[in-house]
Design goal:
Strand content: 15-25%
Largest sheet: 3 strands, parallel
Structural class: alpha/beta
Oligomer: single chain
Distance between the termini: 57 Å
CATH superfamily: STAS domain
CATH topology: Transcription Regulator spoIIAA
Number of helices: 7
Strand order of the largest sheet: 1-2-3
CATH architecture: 2-Layer Sandwich
């Protein structure tokens, strides 16, 4: 009798942008249409990963978990695994995190809808977005306050208008040589088009 193995998706390089998000969407579509309960994501070809992309990848994994779907992540190269241990995404595949000595990562975090309502994201924003940290300029206290308030609003809007029961996922990566900070927020909700459609239906609007 031949032993059955789980379907394998080869993830490869994962960069911020259309192609990177497209790969994550393909994983979701692939799993939703395959009709089995166990899958493997092979990362042996992952020569590079923008760590902020863990936000969207983590959202997909969390969304599928309640459906009884098991996803195993294997083959992550040592260098990339080190990054994922620093931003604590490694906990998703049962690998212990390590300290981020140079503080170039913004921790992968999942806020449940209840935590969002209680405003627990405020502590996250205040911790990771400080003057002179992660590429932020040494701005005035009033400007920093306004900047953080904009992030609060962004997070709240994501939760409110996405109608997501999965919550909100955040993660970031600072690239010192490029002096660039990439921050990704994912909610697993209905999207802008879905939100507008829902609103218009509730208001009895007719549009073409």
């Amino acid at each position: 009798m031949v032993e059955r193995t789980s379907p394998v998706f080869e993830l490869g390089i994962l960069r911020t942008g259309f192609d990177g998000f497209g790969k994550i969407i393909k994983i979701h579509e692939w799993i939703k249409t395959s009709g089995v309960k166990e899958y493997t994501i092979d990362c042996s070809g992952m020569r590079w990963i923008d760590a902020n992309m863990c936000s969207s990848l983590g959202a997909i994994l969390k969304m599928l978990a309640p459906e009884g779907i098991s996803i195993q992540i294997v083959g992550i190269p040592e260098k990339q695994q080190k990054i994922l241990r620093k931003n604590q995404f490694s906990v998703m595949f049962d690998v212990a995190p390590i300290p981020d000595t140079y503080e170039t990562t913004l921790r992968f975090t999942h806020f449940t809808p209840e935590q969002m309502k209680r405003g627990q994201f405020v502590e996250y924003v205040n911790l990771h977005f400080q003057r002179g940290a992660h590429g932020l300029p040494d701005m005035t206290e009033s400007l920093l306050k306004r900047f953080r308030e904009s992030l609060y609003e962004l997070l709240l809007n994501a939760q409110e208008h996405s109608f997501s029961r999965h919550g909100t996922f955040v993660c970031g990566q600072y690239f010192p040589k490029k002096r660039r900070l990439d921050f990704t927020l994912s909610d697993g909700g209905i999207g802008i088009d879905g939100s507008i459609k829902s609103l218009s239906e509730n208001l009895d609007l007719v549009y073409m």
